[in-house]
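Example 3.2
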Amino acid sequence: MLDIDQFMNIQLLKREGHSVREIARLSGHSRNTVRKVLKARAPRQAAPRQRDSLVDAFKPYLRERYLQHRLSAVRLTQEIRAMGFEGGERIVRRFLAQLRQSTQICKKLTVRFETPPGKQAQCDWTEVGRYPQADGTRLYVYAFVMVLSYSRMCYVEFTLSMRQELLIGAHQRAFEFFGGVPETILYDNMKQIRLHGGQIHPLFGDFAAHYGFGVKCHRPWRPRTKGKVERCAAYVKDSFLRGRHFAGLEDLNAQRWTWMQTANSRIHGTTGKIPAELLAQEGLQGLKDLKPWTGTRTLSRRVNAEAMVQVHGVQYSVPALYCNRRVEVQTHSGNVTICCAGLPIASHPEGSKAAGTGRVESAQHISERWALSRPCSAAQKSTPSRPLCEIDFQTEVQQRPLSVYEQEVQAA
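Structure, written as tokens:
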């Protein structure tokens, strides 16, 4: 078998005009070999030698035993040696490595699931940045993203928190934007929706029941299950946010309306169709006869030494007499009501730390604090303190006349 250099040498001599006899003389090969090389267009590759392995006869047995019970190479070597195997454990181990490689399934294997119209939407939060403030703190900005799985129609809203009431409000505005509600919405295991025991949060469950959609959470650590909204969140960052300038949260949410109109009017890369045109085929549940949901959220808090209750970074005042008491805080339709033992003791409009209302106080509560925090009167300060222990000083001390001491001095 000629190598590549010998093959090219014969071809080169032929191009130079040498005859077959002359090429045979110059190359040292027979004329028949020269003729075969000149007829061939490329050098022939030598076929690899097939060597018989000692484990060949036992491969079917090894394959069946390993796939059924995942036995080790040591164990399988012992079994086939009883059947007449004369090789070593290393050969068996090499065969098992090849077998594992041929039967291994990629952990990221994903099956694309196309949803029928109106059946599903996917929802998620994504952090879009941490922005430093003048006081040295950092402000977190999040994007709420919801995508209709069939039409790929998307809704985006930016917030400064991922609190449950903001999540519910974003859902309501998304339903209004889509013009209806899908049958189910797919989430990850966010704490605003799913509790540790796998139960749906009661408040969010009541919200979902009011609008008539099912709540579904995917398996932990598997974001590919809701790949449509994950891809949309990445598209928001790249197409809308990256390299742009915004004058605050209001400007950010104002500009996203124009971007959403553009994003929903483009030809989608997966479906090849325009989401805004497919929206009419979704057949979502209507909102005309449905009143907006106004659920009440109740939190348990303890009043601090300043007669204030903190909720989501905002402090609300209560009467000073309730310091260090346990109270219930109810948030409803932009109002905050504080109750103790089932009775309301204070009510305030809901504040926001980002809007500069991080401390909401009543003038009456401030006056009460000043009145009860004045220094004690002089009479109260002069009140003797109680002694730490009891000491009896009633024992009589013996008195001796001075003449006794004078007699002792003269005797000395």
